[in-house]
Amino acid sequence: MGKKKPLVEMRKISKRFGEFWALKNVDFRVDYNEIVGLVGDNGAGKSTLIKVLTGVYPPDNGKIYFEGKKIKFSSPAEARNLGIETVHQRLGLVGSMNIIENFFLGKEITKRVGPLNILDKKKMSEICKSTLKDLSIRIRSPEKQEVSTLSGGEQQAISMGRCIYFGAKLAVLDEPTAALSIKETEKVLKSIRGMKSRGLSVIFISHNLSHIWPVANRFVVLDHGVKVGDFRKETTSKEKLRKLIMGKIEV
Questions:
Q1: Does the N terminus or the C terminus of the chain have fewer Cβ atoms within 10 A?
Q2: What share of the chain is helix, strand, coil (3-state, %, to 5)?
Q3: Rounded to whole angstroms, how far apart are CA atoms 76 and 145?
Q4: Domain boundaries, position 40
Q5: Nearest-angstrom CA–CA distance, 49 and 191
Q6: Cα(51)–Cα(45) distance, rounded to whole angstroms?
């Protein structure tokens, strides 16, 4: 029996903006139920690679496969339809709306009452509470509490919970701990572990190895648009990765 194909495989991806090559022949893969840390300094090409994967930019060269099938996204909506969800630093949540309204924003559950379709608030509340609980987030009154009153880690968990419930297969987390305290970062890391336990694969983009090291299974290092490292956690160390990112060692 042959080896199972990756969930995502990007082969020889290149992207140029004018005379500047943002990516040069980058190979990148994510296996099923795997957390991949995508690391590198500012300008390394991390965001460009993800934007190519999620349909924001078309690649100039290279091929992309998802679940073994060659794909070519022309928009992020097409990527989402196949199960690739991106959680950005700016989460796109509405601060004046409550937690449940944000969780189901644009995908509300309704029920038939006589001639009318009305919101099934009870079902939405149960789903929201259950999903957030799985991510180690317990909120007393999601029906009443506005998102603007939540901590950064709790807001991240709502977006991650949406990924889980609405059938994402791959979650792309763009610097999810960048502006968080140590305590809040721990909450987000628990949520990421919860995503993996529910069967999702995760791309965790960060330049902070202290945040990404505890949860990632594998690390891919980019430098000026070139992949310079691809290591499973058990074959490397934080110090080795840090030196590679800083350009102090060659692999």
A1: N
A2: 35, 30, 40
A3: 30
A4: 8-96+166-245
A5: 24
A6: 10
